[in-house]
Structures
1.
Amino acid sequence: MIKIGTGSPKVMMVAGVHGNELSPQIAMSYLLDYLLESEINGTIYMIPFATPKASMESKRRFGQIDLNRASHKENSITNIILNKAIELGLSALGDFHSTAPNTNPGREGVFASKEPSSESLTIADFISEKMGTKSIKYNKAGIPFKGALEDEVNLAGIPAVTCEVFAPVSYFSQKACQRSLLQMKYFLQYFGILKETFNDE
């Protein structure tokens, strides 16, 4: 985990929960370079590669475990991230993924839940509007995705969203990488952590 900045708000950004979703992991590496040259108003905790072994092998699962269905299971990697988010007293968490053809959601968008952390909807709508896409909304966290990092963080009372860009499995797309990077920047802009304006480069 990499820490940049000081003070509030405090947010965490995660990529690589699924090792074969390459574009967001590379995008977060680009974001790190960007942030080192930017004015930061708050604290950012970054985990660009949640499962380095799965990323190196370009596998969705870590061993036999889908970590985005295991955040409620003690000592799983995503459970450790969840507990760290609680310990740090975060303002929010963003989990960054890519989605492939014939998968859920199969299109670019931002997942959010109304309950119990309704601000996740506001964050999702902000990012989606800036990106020109639609939010993917559920009434209550944990239904239907029990164990998803976003859901378990929301259930812990910390607003969280899952940002998805469109890219084939195990394939790096420059366009998807740039779209993911833009989602990350807008996530930070929502909280005022980044002040400057930017567009799809």
Note: The helical segments are 22-36, 52-57, 77-88, 119-131, 149-155, 174-190.
2.
Amino acid sequence: MHSAKLLAAILLGLLTLSSALAAEAKPDAAIKTKAAKASVTLNASVKADPALAANCLAEGRKWMNEQAAEAAKDYKEDKALFRDGPYTYGRDYSVRSIVADRYVSVLRSDYMDTHAAHPNRTVDTILWDKAAAKRISIRPFFNETADNGPTMIAIRKAIIASLKGEKKARDAGDTDEEWSKGIEPKLLGIGAVTLAPSTVAGKSSGLTFHYPPYAVGAYAEGDYVAFVPWETLKPFLTSEGQAVFGGSRPKGDAEDN
């Protein structure tokens, strides 16, 4: 009798978990045509902020419609390209960190399968100011962020050092630094940035820069994340930046991103 009740409880738990996962995975917007199958998904943490969710969904819908239009154009020109089915696109938004209950770092991940040699992925980031209900950059945290200025040069140097360490750990085999040429000492050319979480509540331990396949290495190497600790940033921080950064990077954060 007890065994039957236990089995029933386990089955109920599995069904509940399955339903929760299915609900989480359900797209928030989707398109399906002969040429394109596209979707946009916001994770629960993004949806917890209605203004952020609306902003991301509007952007995602625009992107999704643009991809569907491009696919429709290809379909009209050459239906043979779609012998294996429609092109597939997916965009996911997920929260990486929330700092000072104000600054929300969002990862935006895109997946594209247009029947080329292999599918492709890209990654970008959003820094959201909850107080102002708008997207911002990291500029307010620094005294200056001029192209090729001291702040950007110092950050780039730290990024390269971090990526070298990661490449060595992966035994990627890059002996020259050709891969680093795409990382420019410019706010809009240095990489997609997020605020890293910290061991100190309400603080960020530094900046993480996210690079998709091909950005800083061969496709087979996959994604890379470079970490720049806040101590490196300290000489360049404004009072606002000094209030945001502190503590250490939590154990395991490198493995999660």
Note: DSSP finds seven helices and nine strands in the chain.
3.
Amino acid sequence: MDTEDAVSRHYSNPSLEELIVAKLLEAGKNPDRLAAQDLSAVDEFHIGGLEAAREIAAAAGIGSGSRVLDLGSGLGGPARLFASEFGATVHGVDLTPDFVRAATSLTRRTGLDNQVTFGQGSVLQLGSVPGPFDVATLLHVGMNIADKAALFQEAASVLKPGGTFAIYDIMAVGTQPSIRYPVPWAATADTSFPASPDEYSRLLAEAGFVVERERDRREYGIEFIEQGRAAAAAGTAPGLGLQLVLGPEGGSRMANLLDAFQQGILAPVEMICRLHDRNRSQEAFS
């Protein structure tokens, strides 16, 4: 089994949409007439959830008329947010067929299918994706990708000159002690490839990007996980939550991630990058 197959199997759950619909019904929601925010507790599968996705959208300059490509789009939460609250047209690409099917169906249930579409495929092979785009986003995806140089080259290939690449990944900020597994994105180290912010910056520059903003969000990540664990312990966590995606090992996955944050091994890091506009550079010297 190659790495991409192993990653896809890690996230696969053919019953995921059925589980989500059942929890929506328990909460008194009509699953055929949903607002995008009705799903935000489960479909914003990253540190900080809906709040963090909104901040990424604002920092990336997503707005009405923006064409956005969401790389590793999961259940489609960020894509639907970018459309419903920011007015963008969004296409998501994800490796896991179960995620793509659920994302497409949930988008139809929110009435956003005229603005948001999804396709199954590798973010390392974007040749068939209908670009160019104004913005590409990568939210908690790079940890599963060893060849980040290829990933960033592919992102550059589908963006307009001067386009924005917004990254929000969990990155390696220390080397000792080692990460304990499982974590949310991997059961073992075999499919886990966190890299340092310096490595991201170097590879982004090689792909033609300039990092305009970088923000370490380790303390934010610690607070987010601690609040979630406290709610779970008190029995106040929503039934429609990340535990549906994380599965039965969700508690240990989040505990190990929290430990890595607290020990300074890992941190969620945000990078806002601009694709070098060669035409403008040439004009400046003419």
Note: The beta strands are 67-71, 89-94, 116-120, 133-139, 159-172, 209-216, 266-275.
4.
Amino acid sequence: MQERKSEFIREKICDPDITFREIAAEFGFSSQAHLTSYCKKYFGATPTELREGKGEKIAVRSL
């Protein structure tokens, strides 16, 4: 379940038309900072890094 959530979050992050604030709200994060912490933990990159393609090769970390 968590892995699917991570996949959806990553898909949204890679869409430049969706703000990080919208993604944080949609997935129930308390703030953008919480979303950033989540991304660092599970993807090894910040949302900005993921969006810029720097995290493309980073797989979802084992939960």
Note: The radius of gyration is 10 Å.
